[in-house]
Design brief:
By secondary structure, the chain is mainly alpha-helical. 62% of the residues lie in helices and 7% in strands. The chain starts with 7 loop residues before the first strand and ends in a 10-residue tail after the last helix.
């Protein structure tokens, strides 16, 4: 289990212009829908432009139209990003709060699971008795105690800086 903070780099290139580079999050479903739609439209336009360029024919108008389609889609992407800044902040705040609540619930479930594991491990360590022998310890119980301590000392989820 690991968390990626790197994301994915993509570039949109328009002939005669610079490369327009974007760093997408590791999980693209966390992008606001309007941005995602505009980005997908831009990527589709770029694919159409590349397909037009790969053709060996001399239909220069089709190639120019494909380049213009990519340029228009890219301009639309920038426009959507500019006008949706406030709603994007709200979208990400909402998503962050929801993920924080899910994490708190998962940590509570992990704590309960460790307690159940400890109860079973302690009873398994006392096979001839009823219940547990509080003076007996073994590697499993020690490891579960360490897990419980680690879980109890986790850093809380920070507030979103936005």
């Amino acid at each position: 289990m690991s968390v990626s903070f790197k994301g994915e780099s993509i570039g949109i290139v328009i002939a005669g212009d610079r490369s327009h580079d974007f760093m997408l999050p590791a999980d693209p479903t966390t992008m606001p829908p309007k941005i995602s739609e505009a980005l997908n439209a831009t990527l589709d336009a770029q694919k159409n432009e590349q397909a037009a360029d790969r053709k060996k024919n001399s239909d220069h108008q089709a190639k120019a139209d494909a380049r213009e389609g990519t340029k228009q889609a890219l301009n639309n992407l920038y426009d959507v990003a500019a006008v949706s800044a406030g709603s994007r902040r709200d979208f990400h705040q909402e998503g962050y709060t929801l993920a924080s609540l899910r994490l708190a619930r998962a940590l509570a479930e992990a704590d309960a699971a460790i307690q159940t594991l400890a109860c079973h491990a302690q009873q398994a360590a006392n096979p001839s008795g009823v219940g547990i022998n509080p003076t007996q310890s073994n590697k499993t119980i020690a490891t579960l105690r360490a897990l419980a301590d680690d879980l109890a000392t986790l850093t809380p989820v920070p507030a979103l800086d936005a």
